[in-house]
Design brief:
CATH topology: Spore Coat Polysaccharide Biosynthesis Protein SpsA, Chain A
CATH superfamily: Spore Coat Polysaccharide Biosynthesis Protein SpsA, Chain A
Strand order of the largest sheet: 3-2-1-4-7-6-8-5
Distance between the termini: 58 Å
CATH class: Alpha Beta
Strand content: 5-15%
Oligomer: single chain
Amino acid sequence: MLTTLFWLFLAVVLYTYLGYGLVVWVWARLRPGVRPELQRDFTPPVTVVVPAYNEADILDAKIQDCLAQDYPADRLRILVITDGSTDHSAQVLARYPQVRHLHQPQRAGKSMAENRAILFVDTPFVAFTDCNTLLNPEAVRRLVRHYADPLVGAVSGEKRVQADGSTAGAGEGLYWRYESLLKRCDSAISSLMGAAGELVSFRTALFKPLEADTILDDFVQSMRIVGEGYRVVYEPGAYATEPPSFSLKEEMKRKVRICAGGWQAMTRLPGLLNPLRQPVVTFLYGSHRVLRWSLTPLLLALLLPLSAALAATQGGVYALALAGQLAFYAAAGLGWSLASRGRPAGRLLVPLYFTLMNVAVFQGFWRFVRRAQPAAWDKAQRAAVAA
């Protein structure tokens, strides 16, 4: 029994983190998605919404970034919502009469701010972008071109992390490069399994108000659109560049919040796990998201004591498996120690970041079951935005 469990657990872990990527990469190459040409004459009215909570220090740069979009000015509306902000955001926005500013004293979180902002959107398409990101000039144009296909319900851009030489930045950048590969494959096969809130657009008519306590607004909104039978497309030619977390502790805080939101999202998207409705979506969603947020981290943790038990009785390959796991986690601990002292983790980056990601799942689950993750969360501290 222990031997069977060992190989079963190992197979699931290897599939989740390596096998799935290989499967969808081959699948996407065999069934390449149809990429539309950049039709410069397809420029319907679109509203860019920027939720900004106490972001006055970077708000000026963000507005100028939006105004610099390669898109007809008469068809591009910009709306900034600063609900709950107590800084001088209003004074900054007063310098831009062409930007619509929404504000109320109460802070209810990003989801509620977006719910309120959508009431003021009168264009057929809407794009949301975080205040601490900078967009490439053709971002809006490249997002909107996909809506020439009536089956496309949402389009997500690519998140890029600025390299600053830090361990946190290197780890986050490595993760997003791999995640971007999976997103390209998912989109080419069927549909993107969850949009990135740094830059995402929707058909306005498909945007549904989210529950007030929603943690991952971008993910839940986009996956509900997938559940309605529309495609969510990944467009790497539209990208939002974001500074990395200020430190590994700040990055861990962000990861725990995402994992808590992942557990919440899984409880609110049960229909996506019904293979009779959308079999391909169920396969992609279950492999890319559900396994990574739930079962696989548990099996990964159980592999260690299981390997120890088998190594004590049978030795051989199980002793090697135990030694490999201990060395991997020791490398992660050493990497954390180096990063905590401000030194680069170097080759220890992969075991360090991989371990942090899986530890965050357990902490996120505990936060979810206690309902201790508020929608209006404390922002993770990030490095300064570079122009």
